Amino acid sequence: MVDTRRRVKLYVLNDERQWDDRGTGHVSSAYVERLKGMSLLVRAESDGSLLLESKIQPDTAYQKQQETLIVWSEADNYDLALSFQEKAGCDEIWEKICQVQGKDPSVDITQDIIEESEEERFEEIPDAAPPIELPPCELSKLEEISELFSSVLLSPVRREKLAIAIENDNYIKNLLELFHMCEDLENLEGLRHIYEIFKSIFLLNKNALLELMFSDDIIMDVIGCLEYDPNQPQPIRHREYLNTKANFKEVIPITNIELLHKIHQTYRVQYIQDVVLPTPSVFEENMLSTLSSFIFFNKVEIVSMIQDDDKFLPELFALLTDEATDDGKRKELVFFLKEYCTFAQTFQNRDGFFKMLSNLGILPALEVILAMDDADVRQAAIDIFAHIVEYSPSMVREFILQEANTQDDEVILMNLVIEQMICDPDTELGGAVQLMGLIRILIDPENMLATVNKTEKTEFLSFFYKHCMHVLTAPLLANTTDDVPCKDDYQTSQLLSLILELLSFCVEHHTYHIKNYIINKDFLRRVLILMKSRHTFLVLSVVRFVRRIIGMKDEFYNRYIIKGQLFLPVVNAFQANGDRYNLLNSAILEMFEFIRMEDVKSLITHLIETHYGVFEKVDYVQTFKVLKLKYEQQQDRLNDKPILDNIHQAAILHNSRFRRDPRSLEEEEEIWFEQEDEPEDGEAIVPVADMLKNKMEADLDHISKIIDGKKGHNDLDNKDVYSNTTSSTRPSNPLVNSNRTSSPPATPIPTKVASPPSPGLTPNSITRKTGIVGLVDYPDEDSDEDENDDDNSPPSKRVRLTP
Fold first, then answer.
1. Per the record, where are the segments of Low complexity compositional bias (predicted)?
2. Facing residues of 651 across strands?
3. What 3-state class would DSSP assign to 528?
């Protein structure tokens, strides 16, 4: 039986203040990871689709009306209502809501409802609402103060009133006096109440109170109040750490007192946010936004004040690049610069900031830092380099191109970065992964600029493949000198996998340069040696690389693969994998399926002719059977192509007779008679219809013999053939096999002996006339030639093969 207790109708209040029915479904309450909190979920009764997903907010006022209705507002003028079929289901959901908000389920409303106009009036006229009376600051009142502060957090108006009261009554300093008193008396209970009080003050989310607590004279006392967390068995000595272990170092003396104050304050406030205060719950995460804003604006001020100082940064970069600077000092300078760049990430005018760093020589300084032996310093330099590349890769590329004219390949910044990637000591190659991403940004044509005078893409890619590609591929080439990988440990395989990932990106985006490199260096053959690695992830990287090359559908690549038999390692790996259903099997099958889908004819032919013995037994997919079928169809088309070409050419000749211009007749006649092979006098031209009729089963020699046989038969019947010329003077038929003239026909054909030529006629004239008639049939064009014919002899007729 269907449970009807949770059956509800969902209503939404529209702009006309009318309730719209959004559907019927079943309601439940559950924790939603995306919303980070308990939520109400309504799924449609018809298809199970999600009608509502509403997080239960701690300060939202929910109302229960008429025992089966729950109403609340989620945003400005966005009201929702759930109408339950049964009272029991309404009570269950109401208990869940009250449990989240910490309310008694017996109430019909979870929060004090304040009209919007009333809230606005309170904001504009703070005195319109009654002020909150604060208890006196006494040890005996600490518990009462703590309960009061905690109770107002759910009401925005009461939070505002409490903040005003604390600020006006100088309450924070009075509370700190109680704190010192409790510490002197070792009153642990009182100290824990004070912790809850100051935690509530932070959650009031008021900037004025934060500025009071973060002033130089009381900030350490505030941190002391937060040492006595009731949830911790022992106090945490935050003040001791800040005063003794956290040392402030001035890498360059700071003369600006305000700047020095901001740096100290920001460090301590950041410590409070990150370490001292507990991780905010889902109900408190939005109540510390003012604290985050306070830190943000402090960092902006620090960056601005340092940038405005004309001496500080130039002196820093001078020390950074000075060879006389000791490594310890340089390390401190690098760490300061890293922290400074991190602060600048929040700076709005980052364009001007990075231009300033470029003018000061940040990139040459990074070259010096990357050459240091200290791994921590190099990692800090990589972090600084990442900030610059992610914001302005063009600036980095411009610097690299400029130094390429004056520096050796070994000390170019790009090669230093590649070497850092290759030499990452981390077994998981965390730094190498980061650097691979930065290199990818630098060689990505999508973010390269094209100006009127130069193209950044052309210049930089040409530079990269000439000066840097050999450095990037060196580990791979060094590891593939034999038929199997020289080193096959985990870290080396991880590095080679990263290099192949970067090269796959190049194949896709650097079509010209990477193609030349792969083909000229026979690079793919070396890559395929890694198919014999014992690490499957590296083998898969090789397959992805090959797949990316094939995906380009470039016949240069295809011919290179076919000529070098480069599918063999992939096929061997596929065969060795057997019928196992794993990533390697799927990746290789997908590659062959792509070849089939895209109908890459050259690769299909190569695969079937060379490797079909391996694929023939694979029956769990249809890929190879379809490849074989495509191959057979392709071969059939290739075998029929010469015949089809002859048909096509003959069809063109046949159709042209109906479009010939009479004025071009004489010129075409001359061209025809100047050819070495001319048709015989009165010889019939085999029409296209005969070729179609016989379906190309006989060759042209056989066709010509049939024609001669028919002519001989007509000679015996008509007794009037070739009366004006002899067989020795007739030109040969171009359609007849040349061997025919060297041997007599198999069956003699009786003919009438030709009479001498008539006066005034030459063999050429007769041939000329007859040749034209044999080529085309223009009944209106040969009247002049008819005057020269013998009136006593009947006109010769063409022997035609009827279709």
1. 723-734
2. none
3. helix
Contact 496, 479 (CB under 8 A): yes
Could you identify the residue written with the tokens 């409790």? Answer: 182
Report, in angstroms and rounded to the nearest whole number, the Rg of the chain calculated over CA atoms. 47
Mean pLDDT of 23-27: 86
Cα–Cα distance list, 661 to 671, 773, 777 (Å): 15, 16, 13
Q: 557-588: b or e for each residue (b if 16 or more CB lie within 10 Å)?
A: bbebbbeeebbebbbebbeeeeeeeeebbebb
Q: Measured between alpha carbons, how far is residue 385 from residues 153, 394, 425 in Å? A: 44, 13, 19
Alpha-carbon span 599 to 549, nearest angstrom: 15
Alpha carbons 128 and 365: distance in angstroms, whole number:
61
Pair of tokens at residue 695: 């379906």
Q: Which of the two residues, 168 and 552, has the higher pLDDT score?
A: 552
Instruction: Write the DSSP symbol of residue 685.
Output: P
Cα separation values, 634 from 219, 627, 719, Å: 83, 10, 53
Contact 800, 687 (CB under 8 A): yes
Of 554, 556, 439, 557, whose CA–CA distance to 501 is shortest? 439
CA distances from 407 to 359, 460, 463, 495, 739 (A): 19, 16, 13, 27, 75
- The label of the residue with tokens 């090789």 reads 542
**pLDDT tens figures, 197-243:** 999 999 888 888 999 999 989 999 999 999 999 988 899 999 999 98
By DSSP bridging, strand 37-44 and strand 50-55 are: antiparallel
Closest CA to 206 of 322, 102, 126: 126
DSSP 8-class letter at 200: H
Can you say whether the dihedral through the CA atoms of 424, 427, 430, 432 is positive or negative? Answer: positive
Cα angle 433, 435, 441 (rounded to 5 degrees) comes to 110
Q: Return the amino acid letter for 185.
A: L
Interval 405-432: pLDDT, tens:
777 777 889 999 999 999 988 888 888 9
In single-letter form, the type of residue at position 414 comes to: M
* Residue matched to tokens 């509800």: 8
Task: From 684, 751, 756, select the one nearest 725 (Cα to Cα).
Answer: 756
Placement of tokens 């901001």 in the chain? 262
How many percent of the chain have pLDDT more than 90? Answer: 34
The residues facing 7 across adjacent strands are 26
Contact 227, 239 (CB under 8 A): yes
Taking CA atoms, 431 is separated from 367, 381, 480, 777, in Å, by 17, 11, 24, 85
Quote the tokens at residue 256: 């600006």
Q: Which residues contact 210 (CB under 8 A, 6 or more apart)?
A: 202, 290, 291, 294
Distance, CA of 227 to CA of 155 (rounded, Å): 28
- Write the single-letter amino acid at 386: A
| Distance between CA atoms of residues 735 and 701, nearest Å | 8
The DSSP element (H or E) to which 652 belongs, if any, is: helix 623-656
pLDDT value of position 642: 62
Structure pTM?
A: 0.60
At 54 the pLDDT is: 87
- SS3 at position 37: strand
Q: Report how far residue 437's alpha carbon sits from residue 362's, in angstroms, rounded to the nearest whole number.
A: 20
Nearest in space to 771 (alpha carbons), one of 710, 682, 671: 682
Q: How confident is the model at residue 761 (pLDDT cuts 50, 70, 90)?
A: very low
Angle at Cα 423 formed by Cα 421 and Cα 428, nearest 5°? 75
Cα dihedral sign for 264, 265, 269, 270? negative
Residue 83's nearest CA partner among 115, 47, 46, 51 is: 51
- String of DSSP letters for 317-334: HHHHH-TTS-HHHHHHHH
Q: By C-alpha distance, which of 478, 480, 588 is closest to 529? A: 480
The DSSP-derived string for 732-772 is PPTTS-GGGGGS--SS----PPPPPPPTT--HHHHHHHHHH
The dihedral region occupied by 77, where left means phi > 0, alpha psi between -120 and 50, and beta the remainder, is: left
Residue type at position 317: F
